[in-house]
Amino acid sequence: MFKRVIEEVSMDKKIGFLSFGNWNPGHGSQVRTGREALVQSVELAVAAEELGLDGAFFRVHHFARQLAAPFPLLAAVAARTSRIEIGTGVIDMRYENPLYMAEEAAITDLLSDGRLQLGISRGSPETALRGASAFGYRFDDDGGAMARQHTELFRAAIDGAGVADADPRMTGGVTGRLGIQPRSEGLAERIWWGSGTRDTAVWTGQQGMNLMSSTLLTEDTGIPFDELQAEQIARFRAAFADAGWDREPRVSVSRSVMPVTTDEDRMYFGDRSGEDQVGILDGMRSRFGKTYAGPPDQLAEELAKDAAVREADTLLLTVPNMLGVDYNARLLETVVREVAPAIGWTPKH
Q1: Which DSSP helix (H) or strand (E) runs through 259?
Q2: What is the C-alpha to C-alpha distance for residues 155 and 210, in angstroms, rounded to an integer?
Q3: Can you tell me the mean pLDDT for 241-254?
Q4: Do 234 and 7 form a contact (C-beta atoms < 8 A)?
Q5: What's the rounded Cα separation, in Å, for the pair 160 and 189?
Q6: I need a surface site. Which of 30, 94, 214, 326 has the fewest CB within 10 A?
């Protein structure tokens, strides 16, 4: 069944970049402060749009030298661009006030003219011990249940549900439930769940969200990462269809793709692609996707054979942001010119 579902899918490929927004004052870093990380994130998004890419996505972390609260950054990117999608990959919902987030998301989407693609999830292992409790939330051992509860309320709010009782003294006697304002029509269909297993992908499909799958899965069946991820995608699409949702869902996968064309590239990334890795993450046996590094023609051939890249409609390229905007813009230019056509992508202008 999974193979049949995959074969029936036909889509136009989109390519974006995914930045963790790291900064560090150490030797060799081109991003030394939090301000530089933010400014360079906007500049890289502008460069990506000029190159014809489809999206600029940003990871969200707390208590670390990485990008955190995403909406001011996304609004700044929206103000400097006109076409590319802007998004997250992902927001940790354990930390979020769902209704305040719904207002921020709607405002950002309106400012961007409907370009927001919001990746959310339970989040990943972090530097803080029970960090969300410092934000005022109490939760179970892994925070998963709270993340899903926050997500349910957030999605209801952006979809127009009443979430607070009206005060008739202030509404001319009108009673009932009030929704958040402003609203942005269509945003509810542009929410993605970051899924790390096949089971959570099924849940994502049942919920009617899009699927965002990264460079690791917190499970391992012994088969190559791309094939395991392709199975995850197939299960998601089957669950989405079985739940009766009346639209075509979107799926993104992330890959580290490092073309090696100069001595500088070779110094940073070598000249050969790696292999999948298996290890323990957050107490679970996990499979990590390989890094694609080498000459562009080699990477084009390897990516064209990647089962999950073939089945996803969106490929997010993780960028080494601390090497600076100029380096990453050149990296992206090489990918779009010499690698991306092999997976059926064409630049958008």
Answers
A1: strand 257-259
A2: 13
A3: 97
A4: no
A5: 13
A6: 326
Tokens of residue 67, six digits:
């990008």
Radius of gyration, CA atoms only, the chain: 20
* Dist CA 128 CA 92 (whole Å): 13
> Tokens 């749009």 map to which residue?
49
15: which 2 tokens? 């390519």
Q: Do 278 and 285 contact (CB within 8 A), yes or no?
A: yes
Between the ranges 222-226, 281-285, 288-292, 336-340, where is the mean pLDDT highest? Answer: 336-340
Calculate the alpha carbon distances from 25 to 22, 73, 313, 324 in Å: 10, 21, 37, 13
- In this structure, the number of other CB atoms found within 10 A of the CB of residue 28 comes to 8
Structure confidence at residue 76 as a pLDDT band (50, 70, 90): very high
Instruction: Kindly state the DSSP code that residue 304 receives in the 8-state scheme.
Output: H
Q: Which residue has the tokens 């090497």?
A: 323
Q: What is the 3-state secondary structure (H, E, C) of 172-231?
A: CCCCCEECCCCCCCCHHHHEEEECCCHHHHHHHHHHCCEEEECCEECCCCCCCHHHHHHH
Indicate left, alpha or beta for 265 from its phi (over 0: left) and psi (-120 to 50: alpha): alpha
176-187 confidence digits (pLDDT tens)? 999 999 999 999
Cα separation of 45 and 18, whole Å? 10
With CA atoms as reference, report the closest residue to 211 among 188, 227, 186, 232.
232
